[in-house]
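queue> holo job accepted (pyridoxal-5'-phosphate)
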Amino acid sequence: MKLAEDSQLALLGGTPICETPWPVTNTIGPEEKREVLEVLESGVLSGFRAGAGEEFLGGVKIRRLEREWAARFESRHAVSFNSLTSGLIAAIGAIGIGPGDEVILPPLTMSASATSVLFYGGVPVFADIEPDTFGLDPRSVRQRITSRTRAILVVHLFGCPADMEGLLAVARDHRLPLIEDCAQAPGATYRGRGVGTLGDMGGFSLNIHKTIHCGEGGVLITDSDEWAQRLRLIRNHGEVAVEGLGLANWTNIFGGNFRMTELEAAVACAQLKKLDGLTEHQIHLASYLTAGLSEIPGLRLPPPTQEGTQRVYYVYPMRFDRQVWGISRELFLRAVQAEGVPLRADYQRPIYLEPIFRRRCPQAFCPVAEKLHQEELVFGRFCRWPLSEHHMDRIVAAFRKVWAARSELQRCS
Ligand SMILES: Cc1ncc(COP(=O)(O)O)c(C=O)c1O
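queue> job finished
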């Protein structure tokens, strides 16, 4: 990468700010290899067996992961799954959602947040989000409550905690359980507490794209003994275990095979130890980048949060203002990308626009989410190890260059 000597935009034939590819993130090292080798040498790649007894709860690595996860996230129970998608299905099952029951959730999220409700014949009801946190807007949630509402599912999108004070107040007023989807936010805090511990259950994803991963995996946390037990039953064919566990009157619970293997648990144990270091690096790069970008007009950067609240940066999100720039978001994106910066705008559209939800949910319109999707949102996976301040400087240089030459872009648009 080289300094911005050439003020001619790369999109118009100039030299790009970043001429070499961005480094690839690979956090798998000797620690993970050692853990996995232990499992391979034992020959026991999964310790689970469906049915009451010792093996109902999985093997040594699963139990260790759950112990260490519960300790790190300050929760009474952690229950592992083969993905957070499976974990969310189990969470919705655990709180007893049935046909026609409504669950309120945001439209800007990964589809698994909403399909988990469909698995039980429930109805996802979409409430709008707040433009700075990208999380559910408590006022919009209140407007969506009906006599059929049974739960609220909050998503801490892009690593930013939603307005939990407002959302917990709605949940309390209507006696609704609140599930936190923290797939993108491990390590984020809200007023001094880790996300995932504020509601009744919190779920984390360990898929390849997340800050820490094991290929595929998920973990749910809860302080409730009963919900933890329900989660374990749904994870592992609980229908054949309830009697042996002395729970014969739990006749509504049945499960699937949502079990994580010992191999993935082994990787996850080693990765968990890296979470805090990787998160600190993310936060450091993000605040360095925010300082660098703050003088460029027409970009709403992640705003400061209150004392005790810390976002993490699964992605670094910004809101683009086309009035200030005088060009479309698409042209802005193309110009920045041509400078070699992997800026994107292609996050999931509001999911109520997908055919399955158009057919199965009440008609929804969430203007804040729509505007973000159609006009404003730009983001990058910038703040990750092994990227450094040097890369943040390049991003800032590219944005400055495009800003300085925007009149040329205006002419050609
Ligand atoms: C917000 C959100 N919820 C749920 C999921 C599902 O997680 P998994 O891929 O582990 O099933 C994801 C995955 O990207 C996500 O981003």
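queue> The mean pLDDT is 96.
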